[in-house]
Design a protein that fits this description.
Elements (H helix, E strand, L loop, with lengths): L2 H34 L99 H6 L1
């Protein structure tokens, strides 16, 4: 055996002895700690976490009370209602009819003379519910 190989074996042996002494120290510390703890005759774990379970409660349903709209009842006439008009006997027209002048052409109107257009009106179409015509077929046969 050469001197370098014997030195390596010696260093390895010292390292192993150091690790064994550290492990023995750890085991001794664990044994002392275990000896100082109170012994429990029942080895079952006594830890029981408290679970928080709230009592169930039901909130009331939200109720919306819309403003009532009262619409007039639709009146359906099977035939058009025309009121007779009593007019005098037609008189003969004399002469040519007067033709009024139409609007001026756009090139003759100056920008400051042009009237301002009316503001746009937004139309809202309110659809009646389908229940307006319900039952009309039955009403025809009664």
């Amino acid at each position: 055996m050469s001197a370098s190989s014997s030195v390596g074996v010696l260093v390895a042996a010292l390292g192993l002895q150091e690790v064994q002494s550290v492990l023995n120290a750890i085991h001794n510390a664990d044994a002392q700690t275990a000896a100082s703890l109170p012994t429990n005759p029942n080895p079952v774990d006594n830890y029981s976490p408290r679970t928080i379970t709230p009592e169930p409660h039901y909130l009331p349903r939200q109720v919306l009370h819309p403003t009532p709209r009262y619409l007039p009842r639709p009146v359906l006439h099977p035939s058009p209602r025309v009121e007779p008009s009593f007019c005098a006997s037609p008189s003969p027209k004399s002469g040519l009819p007067h033709i009024a002048a139409g609007p001026q052409p756009p090139w003759k109107i100056l920008p400051w003379q042009e009237p301002t257009p009316p503001p746009d009106v937004i139309k809202m179409i309110v659809r009646l519910p389908d229940s307006v015509t319900k039952g009309t077929l039955i009403d025809l046969f009664m």
